[in-house]
Amino acid sequence: MDSKLPVSERTLEELLTETLDYSLCITIDKGKGVWVVAGMLVQYLESLTDSVSVRNGDEIVGTIGGKEILENLLKNPTQSLFYETLVEEIMEKYPIMFSGQTKYR
User: Fold this and answer.
1) Nearest Cα to 11, choosing from 22, 1, 26?
2) Domain segments of the chain as ranges
3) In the CATH hierarchy, which fold is given to the domain comprising 27-90?
4) Which residues touch 62 (CB under 8 Å, ≥6 apart)?
5) Does residue 24 or residue 93 have the better pLDDT?
6) What is the DSSP annotation of 17-29?
């Protein structure tokens, strides 16, 4: 690694040599109810995971976490959010994707 290269120009693989691959990636299939992902999040809150990736087959199509659930619970403060809403209806539709070659900037 070139010590004169600014941090912003270094890749994530250079900066996070060991931890980049050790992050949990919890997934849920599109079509599941919000109550399922809420139950999953409870199990992972003590880890570094704060959201769940939503997939359609092998493709990641969004993410859902406490933020999306709470925002929608404020709009619809009833149990119907959990039992009548699917994860894809409230998920963040444009997840940030990165690889080891992504630059920090």
Assistant:
1) 1
2) 27-90
3) CBS domain Like (3.90.1280)
4) 53, 54, 87, 88, 91, 92, 93, 94, 95
5) 93
6) TTTGGG----EEE
Q: How far is residue 64's CA from residue 67's CA, in Å, rounded to a whole number?
A: 8
Q: Which residues of 70-102 are buried (b: 16+ CB within 10 A; e: fewer)?
A: eebbeeeeeeebbeebebbebbeeeeeeeeeee
Number of residues that make up the chain: 105
Helix (H, G, I), strand (E, B) or coil at 50: coil
Q: Which two tokens stand for residue 6?
A: 């600014």
- pTM here is 0.73
Six token digits for residue 102: 């992504």
Model confidence at 23: pLDDT above 70:
no
